[in-house]
Amino acid sequence: MTEVVCDAGFSLVLGGWVRRREEFFDALSLSATAEATAMKRLVIDFEAALARLVLSRQAEDQVDRTLEEFLVEDYVQHDPNVPGNGRAILAGRPTPR
């Protein structure tokens, strides 16, 4: 297992988290409404897919496929530190202006 110490000061054991454990993901995403549960589950699945890419050292080869699976092409970025919107920006390929 791989342990990562996060910025918030807690450690996360990635070995179990990034593997698809449906019961764990279901419990983690459980919310008061079905819509909130579905949105949380989507984010959890996306984060787990990205973590698996990094841990398997396949991020560069498969990041486009993963981003296409989870994000629309004109994804709106809400992080002010990212220089624009869209999947291409997240993949490290700025789109022509």
Structure explained in plain terms:
By secondary structure, the chain is mainly α. It has one domain. 52% of the residues lie in helices and 6% in strands. A two-stranded antiparallel sheet has the order 1-2. It is globular, with a radius of gyration of 15 Å.
Describe the structure concisely.
The chain is mainly α and 97 residues long. It is built from five helices and two strands; from the N terminus they run E-E-H-H-H-H-H.
Q: How is the secondary structure organized here?
A:
Layout: E1 3-5, E2 11-13, H1 14-17, H2 22-29, H3 34-55, H4 59-70, H5 87-90
Antiparallel strand pairs: 1-2
Helix pairs in contact: 2-3, 3-4
Which strand-content bin applies to the residues? 5-15%
How would the global form be characterised? Answer: globular
Rg, nearest Å: 15 Å
Average pLDDT confidence is 76
Helix content: 40-55%
The main pleated sheet reads as:
2 strands, antiparallel
Helix segment count?
5
Task: Provide keyphrases for this structure.
97 residues, mainly alpha, 2 strands, disordered N terminus
